[in-house]
């Protein structure tokens, strides 16, 4: 019987990795966040501290709980510091080459043979990531949704090589320890949610690009007409236009269907450095 997970590693401290680390530490896990540089590690820490302070202001946690949570969060720039982790969740950029390189490294440094190596990818084949390691049965997709502290869903994505025990342990972590709801999807680009969401977001970009309507009217249409919490262009800005394009590209590579093709405007905005909320400008301004 393998014990429950107490030591979690998160690689990448951006909006997804930071959110996963926050949820883990708030649930009582000891969490190490690994970033690429001291500057990125400082930014990850400051994002997490800001989010925890906001949770205090909103009376979701007490000041004492914030301090305890902060004490459970550690930051490093060295992947080898994850050697004692029982589970590592990768949440770096949606770039297949980078992910394969990282998983080969994690395979070398994580010493517990029962440790789970998970990826938060939205669209890259889990089987490829798994095959970068010598333990593909311990690798799976554990896909969270942004903002991670708010949204309840986690998609669990086993590859053809993942053991049922690995899926069951990841399910227990997400459900029982982190308080999320899980659904299971096959190892197909986009899984369940993005396979439906991404064509919708791309359609909104095409509609805007074609001059059908203003960004505000497209978004208001879906907020007021369909009770979505935010419109598709605002959501695209929140996901990150570079991330949306990377997901669309992976899905187009998998299915070769026009519905997944990134429209030229999305491509040009990314080329111009307009990445949405995180860069201060996308379909809207965030200054
Ligand atoms: N961290 C923690 N809490 C947050 C938060 C964050 N980043 N953003 C918002 N919240 C909390 C607020 O504190 C607030 O909590 P209370 O109601 O308890 O006070 C609650 O969420 C609502 O927030 P706001 O009142 O500030 O604003 P809102 O009502 O407009 O909600 C939203 C904001 C939660 C982001 C909401 O608009 C929403 O759910 N939008 C849709 C998000 C979505 O579709 N996400 C999926 C993206 S796809 C993805 O992630 C996968 C992928 O692979 C691309």
Briefly note the CATH topology name of the largest domain. Rossmann fold
Shape: globular
CATH structural architecture of the largest domain: 3-Layer(aba) Sandwich
In DSSP terms (H or I, runs of 4 or more residues), the helix count works out at 11
The chain-level structural class is alpha/beta
Any idea how many domains?
2
Under CATH at level 1, the class of the largest domain stands as: Alpha Beta
Radius of gyration, taken over Cα atoms and rounded to an integer in Å: 19 Å
Order of helices and strands: EHEHHEEHEHEEHEHHHHH
Low-confidence parts, pLDDT < 50 over ≥5 residues? none
Sketch the major β-sheet. 8 strands, mixed
CATH homology-level superfamily of the largest domain:
NAD(P)-binding Rossmann-like Domain
Helix content: 40-55%
Description:
By secondary structure, this protein is α/β, with parallel strands linked by helices. The chain is 47% helix and 13% strand. The chain contains 11 helices and 8 strands. Helix 4 links the parallel strand 4 and strand 5. It is globular. The mean pLDDT is 97. Bound molecules: acetoacetyl-coenzyme A. The site of acetoacetyl-coenzyme A has 15 residues, from helix 7 and helix 9. Acetoacetyl-coenzyme A (CAA) binds next to helix 7 and helix 9.
